[in-house]
Design a protein that fits this description.
About 75% of the residues lie in helices and about 0% in strands. With about 300 residues, it is mainly alpha-helical. Helix 10 runs antiparallel to helix 12.
């Protein structure tokens, strides 16, 4: 287990360096920046001073200077929001995005696993058809369409939940459901297929022959093995949930990091783009490491080397 953790952590710097370099190239190649926008043309001398301040006078200067700040935990000043640094934006917005993302993942995992398990136990029944419907809808509709439908249905028409904002317990429900639908669909199908395979195993028949009830066999013994494919999917699911939050936060006016990322792209704010991308990359790498560790705990037969290559 310690070898697995050390192996994955040793990969972090290389992966983050590649992510930084690719993001830097895309940011620098994109035309325009906040200092040369046509809607607020600056005096050439003022623009030159600002470019030197931000180390944006040449790509090589920015490329050499910015990584040194990153190593010290300083993401630099924001080009667009001159009164804020990128660190200030991250401190205020990141907890909101983490709370929303974790809520969506927990809902997707719990509901998707339960529906998938019941669908496998009762194949061809109403719950099986329900799981198929959820899967089709979740996979087919992008998160911003689901968010818009939920917003119109529960906020505009029924007026059960607030239209947007953040701070009240009810504010997380609609954006959380919009984010959780797609991973919930995949988890439900993965659980159903894995559970059907596990239910036909010899040890299940042995457990039933020893007098264990069907409920005990399914929820205590089968679900642990059937959950392994779901656990493998949670890494990509975290990526999909976090990137999907960019648009969902915009729809529901949630003051998370997603809104700032969208605005940073629109405003050509390179430091804010790089800061948000690097922070999300660290979270995704950490989450994938936790998935590998959980995989080894659920199934001790898996060797460390195999888990690391999963």
């Amino acid at each position: 287990m310690l070898r697995l953790i050390a192996y994955r952590i040793a990969q972090f710097p290389l992966i983050l360096a590649v992510v930084y370099l690719l993001t830097f190239i895309l940011v620098w190649v994109a035309p325009g920046d906040p200092l040369s926008r046509t809607d607020r043309r600056l005096d050439p001398k003022v623009e030159l001073v600002l470019r030197q301040k931000f180390r944006a006078d040449h790509w090589s200067s920015f490329l050499r200077h910015y990584p040194l700040n990153l190593l010290q935990g300083d993401f630099g000043p924001s080009f667009e929001y001159s009164e804020w640094t990128v660190n200030d934006i991250l401190k205020s917005a990141l907890p909101v995005s983490i709370t929303l993302g974790l809520f969506a993942l927990v809902v997707a995992t719990l509901v998707g696993t339960a529906i998938g398990t019941l669908a496998a136990v009762r194949q061809g029944g109403a719950i099986d058809w329900l799981s198929l419907s959820i899967s089709l809808i979740g996979v087919s509709l992008p998160s911003f369409v689901v968010a818009t439908v939920l917003l119109v249905a529960f906020s505009v028409e029924l007026r059960w939940l607030p239209v947007g904002g953040w701070g009240r317990p009810t504010d997380i429900i609609l954006p959380g459901l919009a984010l959780s639908l797609m991973p919930m669909a995949y988890i439900a199908r993965l659980t159903r297929v894995a559970m059907i395979d596990v239910l036909s195993s010899d040890y299940v028949r042995t457990a039933r022959a020893k007098g264990l009830s069907r409920r005990q066999v399914v929820w205590k013994h089968c679900l642990r093995n059937a959950f392994l494919p779901v656990l493998s999917y949670l890494g990509p699911a975290a990526a999909a949930t976090l990137t999907g939050a960019f648009v969902v936060e915009k729809v529901f006016s949630v003051p998370g990091l997603g809104q700032h990322f969208v605005n940073s792209v629109l405003n050509r704010d390179p430091t804010l783009v790089l800061g948000t991308v690097m922070v999300y990359s660290v979270f995704l790498l950490t989450f994938n490491l936790l998935v590998d560790i959980g995989y080894a705990f659920l199934d001790p037969r898996i060797e460390v080397g195999k888990a690391a290559g999963a």
